[in-house]
Each structure stands twice: as C-alpha cells, then as structure tokens.
Amino acid sequence: KGMDNVRKEVDFAITAYGRAYNGKQSDAMAEEPVFIYAGPMDSRNRTFCSDIVRRGHAFTRDSIEKLNNHPDLHAYVSPNVKTLCGGYGCRHIFIPISRASAIERGVEVET
Q1: Per-residue pLDDT band at 3 (split at 50, 70, 90)
Q2: Which of 59, 67, 91, 95 has the most CB within a 10 Å radius?
Q3: Is 23 helix (H, G, I), strand (E, B) or coil?
Q4: Given this model, what pLDDT does residue 77 score?
C-alpha cells in the first residue's frame, strides 16, 4: 500500500509539472492563446471535469481563473484550476491554441 501511495504522489507531481510547463510554453505564443480542456470523457470523470469537457469551449486565462469558483470543484483543490484541473488524479489538461484556430474550428471562447 505504501508504494501505491508513492506512485500516486509521483504521478500527481509529474502531471502538475506538465501542466505548469504547458502553461509556460503558452506564454511564448505570438498571440494571447485560448485553452481547450482536453482529456477523457468517461465514468471516472468528476462532475467538474464532465461539465467542462462537455461544454467543448475554449477558455481565456481569465475564464480559467473564474473556474476556481465552479460549484462542482472539490474544496481540496486550491484555487489553481490552471495547474490542478479537476484536482488530485485528474486526467485532463488545458491545451493552448490560438484564438483564430478555435474560431476556425467553431469552438466558442468563454471570456
């Protein structure tokens, strides 16, 4: 059981690092990006994640910050949806794309 906990903590740390790195990479984009919440849609999803994935929208940095107040977000998720997404063990990630690409694909951008 102890090794399972260690694996979970390592997985969580690697995932959080990847999300933070992805966010930093978006800072280098020529125009202000928008972000797609990507990942599986299945029975393991938290209510928060299901809602965001089902929307199929792109999010600005400001609209991601507003998600920190989402009613279905677990209380243990510190106000950092950008890095933690749906919380511990979440399999989703915000992927940066250009606003033009989002519009071209018919994706609504939440502001």
Answers
A1: low
A2: 59
A3: helix
A4: 66
Residues 6+ apart with CB under 8 A from 93: 15, 18, 19, 22, 37, 38, 39, 85
Torsion of CA 59, 56, 74, 72, to 10 degrees: 110
Among 22, 33, 41, residue whose Cα is nearest residue 58: 33
Element (H, E) at 97: strand 93-97
**Two structure tokens written together for 87:** 């919380």
Structure tokens given for 15:
């995932």
- Report the pLDDT averaged over residues 67-92: 83
Amino acid identity of residue 48, one-letter, is F
